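Recall that a protein's primary structure is simply its ordered list of amino acids. Everything else, from secondary elements to tertiary packing, is in principle encoded there. The following example makes that idea concrete.
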Amino acid sequence: MLTKILLVDDSRTFRKVMFKAFCIYPCLVFEAGNGEEGIQVAERVSPDLILLDLNMPVMDGEECLQKLKAHPALRDTPVMMLSANEDQSTVEKFLGLGAFDYLQKSLDTLQMIERARRVVPLTLMVSL
């Protein structure tokens, strides 16, 4: 069965870059533009990993994380928070709220993939 990854971010550019980065792995990538959409997609597809931006319109990452952790079917889904804010108290806050990991948001897809590999199996697809 393919690994399912959900990208929740209001930046279409960021989602597109991350989608392309994950496409070389045997996984399905789903997208949402805010926390509210993210919860709806997560309920529908039951992702194996959620990458969740902190600052978004409609429902931000903090509220979305709290709702995910309170949701019976989604509470155990690993969530990696993404933000430009690397303040240690912010990192500790979100880890305390149940995030699996907290990453500085960047277009460094290798770092994102490596951190995602801690949670889900990602092996390059090889064609002969």
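The CA atoms of residues 83 and 115 lie 14 Å apart. The chain has one domain: 3-116.
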